[in-house]
Amino acid sequence: MKLLTIDIETRPIEGYLWGLWRQNVAINQIKHPGALLCFAAKFHDERQVHFHSEWEDGSKGMARKLYDLFNQADAIAGWNSDKFDIRWINAQFLEHGMGKPSAYAKVDLMRSVRRQVALPSYKLDYVAQWLGVGKKVNTGGFELWRDVMGGDGKARGLMRKYNINDVRLTEAVYNKLHERGWVLGLPNASIEDGLVCGNCGSDRLTRQGYRHTKTRRYAQYKCKDCHSWMQSVHCEPGSAQLKVV
């Protein structure tokens, strides 16, 4: 499986406003709708981090680079990527006349944590520090985005560092979750490799009783490497059979 971890940075919406509080902004007040500013992407277990930006590659150039990377990936991981990163990226594909990339599994790590673990915050920076795998680069706030759009070379260097660190941090969180079977949305590794762990692909499985449904009984296994649980795809002899009338 080729797993691609992504992280994007976007430029803000620019518009004409009459005030700062409780504004109702009409579409004819929008000066710039916002767009992709830069992105970092990394295939799992590869050293290279791909970085491309609006100031180096242009908007269409970035979209083409992303499209090529997406077409190589079996699964794409990110933090809040289902609602944010992937939707922004799809907007770039559509804007620049591209079709959908090849099918891939969506692995939103924030969703994996939020659905299974109670924490005071689900921000990447908090979860990464809580897991002990690192923290985000301090940007200094909105001024960095303003300076990047203004053409400041030093600011663009810091944005590059910030973006690349975020994708490495996201991968580190993935590794920590994956090694104990907490990642949701991954393709099932046992589809191609037979009776192996669906999470990590290991064949070091131990038989651990049965999993029962209302009408069937399935042999249950536990992975010795990532401690994930899985079941046989075939029901056991003697399981109740539905009689079709």
What does this structure look like?
The mean pLDDT is 90. The protein has helices at residues 54-72, 81-95, 109-116, 124-131, 142-149, 153-178, 190-193, and strands at residues 3-11, 14-15, 30-32, 35-43, 50-53, 75-78, 105-108, 205-212, 217-223, 229-235. α4 crosses α6 and α5 crosses α6. The chain is of the alpha+beta class and 245 residues long. The longest helix is centred in the last third of the chain and has 26 residues, at 153-178. The chain is built from 7 helices and 10 strands. The protein has a 5-stranded mixed beta sheet with strand order 5-4-1-6-7, with helices on both faces. A 3-stranded antiparallel beta sheet has the order 8-9-10, with no helix packed on it. It folds into 2 domains: 3-178, Ribonuclease H-like superfamily/Ribonuclease H (Nucleotidyltransferase, domain 5); 195-235, no CATH class.
Question: Briefly, what is this?
Answer:
This protein is of the alpha+beta class and 245 residues long. The chain is built from 7 helices and 10 strands.
According to CATH, the homologous superfamily of the largest domain is Ribonuclease H-like superfamily/Ribonuclease H
Strand order of the largest sheet: 5-4-1-6-7
Portion in beta strands? 15-25%
Number of strands: 10
CATH topology of the largest domain: Nucleotidyltransferase, domain 5
Q: What's the alpha carbon Rg, rounded to whole Å? A: 22 Å
The level 1 CATH classification of the largest domain is: Alpha Beta
Largest sheet: 5 strands, mixed
Number of helices: 7
